[in-house]
Automatic annotation (TrEMBL):
Protein name: Fringe-like glycosyltransferase domain-containing protein
Domain spans labelled Fringe-like glycosyltransferase: 99-217, 238-442
Main location: membrane
Keyword Aminoacyl-tRNA synthetase attached: no
Topology in the lipid bilayer: Single-pass membrane protein; Single-pass type II membrane protein
GO molecular function: glycosyltransferase activity
Organism field: Poecilia mexicana
Protein family per UniProt: Belongs to the glycosyltransferase 31 family.
Record localization: Endomembrane system; Membrane
Keywords annotated in UniProt: Glycosyltransferase, Membrane, Signal, Signal-anchor, Transferase, Transmembrane, Transmembrane helix
Signal peptide limits: 1-18
Length: 462
């Protein structure tokens, strides 16, 4: 054991070689051997945040007076947008940096990296071994967004909190890259990225589990190697209420069940809101777009909504928000978030899922969490001629396929949720920082709205 340690200390150069007080170090933490991948996005706001993060990391490295790490923006690595799912990118990273890198760190664009703490942390782990490091999350109950995995004991499987970042040692990275190239990987849906990556790495027990690193922080405290504040950025004053048009998809069956929930919770925050149903009901009121009601997808209805949005029938505003009748949404928070985006660009915003991303598939904004579209995006989509293959096709997936085909990026915000709060692990969602949740199934939707989406100064008045 001791011999090995001696050996390593000969082979590896440790951050500050002159510091004799440090405990014996086991791994390498030379900044030049670190590759940091920022999970940046193509949308101009996010691309800019990504550049700023990269600049900050490089400045910090320079002020430490050591070599510079390699800092990459994920959206720049390829034109294929589906590579946000990371695994398809590993072979390329391996080909370019496989020889020179000791560690690969993956962070979000709002994740701060404290390089000198990170160096200390990484030294604890011998880099020629396989390590998967991060802040551990686990499900408390079987979750639909994880396909109810580990339903006997949901707490048994750990996956990294994306906000805190996660790291792969070179040895593990190399083997994963080889697996991705040699196995004919099938992928259907990409829903919750770090859970899926952790499953891929764990490989039914043949690969390593996630090792918890306390210094990978999803909130700010002392001695953090990574830090995170929150996902709801402050880009200035909220977008005007008058600049948002909300379309609620409903049908006769839910007029008396779900529509009253919308009315008693978030409807009051909308200036322009219409309910679209297969039956006209003046008491709500609903509008019948003449599209037959379908049980599964709502492609026909959603395309009719977009045509109406561009028509003279409704006020001309910058933003279209399409939700289900069982979506719960905070319009005040959405207005604050939308200030970050330029409506003159084609923007498609919400919770991003992927379909077939290993085989050049497409991304889409999942419908239940709310689909936010700029007028420009709606115009481009409709004039492209892209359309539903049937009225009951899944609207969100068809929109995603169309946007991918015409080169409009699908922008992700983790503030939107296709499922209910308890489908997401603890620290990932906080009551102050969510824009939407979805589904009334076995919960009290009004309580979900009050607890998770209503802002506290309003809550106090109750
Ligand atoms: C992106 O993913 C595709 C597979 O879907 C792959 O062929 C391509 O090389 C990837 N791009 C990069 C930069 O890794
Ligand atoms: C409207 O949709 C409901 C399902 O909510 C269905 O039962 C009903 O037959 C439809 N009515 C018409 C007139 O299409």
């Amino acid at each position: 054991m001791w011999l090995m340690a001696v050996n390593w200390s000969l082979c590896f150069f440790f951050g500050s070689a002159s510091n004799h007080e440090d405990p014996p170090a086991w791994g390498s933490a030379v900044l030049e051997e670190l590759v940091i991948v920022i999970q940046s996005q193509k949308n101009s706001y996010h691309a800019q945040r990504g550049y700023q993060r990269k600049e900050k990391i490089l400045q910090d490295a320079a002020s430490l007076g050591q070599g510079l790490p390699v800092v990459l923006l994920l959206h720049e690595l390829s034109d294929y947008e589906g590579n946000w799912s990371i695994l398809p990118v590993l072979p390329l990273l391996s080909a370019i940096y496989g020889e020179s890198a000791s560690w690969f760190l993956f962070v979000e664009e709002e994740t701060m990296v404290v390089l000198h703490v990170l160096q200390k942390v990484l030294k604890r782990y011998p880099v020629q071994e396989e390590w998967f490091l991060g802040q551990r999350l686990h499900d408390n109950k079987p979750s639909i967004v994880h396909h109810y995995a580990f339903s006997e004991d949901p707490t048994s499987f750990g996956y990294p909190d994306p906000a805190a970042g996660w790291a792969l040692s070179a040895a593990l990275h190399q083997r994963l890259a080889e697996r991705i190239q040699s196995e004919n990987l099938k992928s259907d849906f990409t829903i919750d990225l770090t859970h899926e990556i952790a499953l891929f790495i764990w490989e039914e027990g043949r690969g390593p589990k996630l090792t918890t690193v306390p210094e990978f922080c999803s909130e700010t405290r002392d001695n953090c190697a990574t830090k995170f504040t929150n996902y709801l950025p402050n880009c200035g004053s909220p977008v005007s209420k008058n600049n948002i048009f909300v379309a609620v998809k409903t049908c006769e069956k839910y007029h008396s069940v779900r529509v009253p929930v919308v009315k008693s919770t978030w409807e009051k925050h909308a200036v322009y809101l219409e309910y679209y149903s297969n039956v006209t009901d003046a008491s709500i009121p609903t509008i019948n777009l003449g599209v037959p009601n379908t049980e599964r997808g709502h492609c026909g209805k959603t395309f009719a909504i977009m045509r109406r949005f561009l028509s003279e029938a409704v006020p001309k505003v910058d933003w279209l928000v399409i939700v289900d009748d069982d979506t719960l949404i905070s319009l005040p928070r959405l207005r604050r978030l939308l200030r970050c985006y330029n409506p003159k660009e084609a923007v498609s915003l919400g919770e991003r899922y992927g379909y077939g991303l290993m085989q050049n598939g497409y991304s889409y904004t999942t419908g239940g969490g709310g689909m936010v579209l700029s007028r420009t995006a709606v115009s481009i989509l409709l004039s492209s001629g892209c359309s539903c293959y049937s009225d009951d096709a899944p609207d969100d997936m068809v929109l995603g396929r169309c946007f991918t085909a015409i080169g409009v990026p699908i922008t992700h915000s983790p503030l939107f949720h296709q499922a209910q709060p308890d489908d997401y692990a603890g620290t990932r969602i906080t009551p102050q920082h969510s824009v939407s949740f979805h589904k009334h199934w076995s919960v009290d939707p009004v309580a979900i709205y009050t607890n998770w989406l209503q802002d506290s100064h309003l809550k106090d008045e109750l």
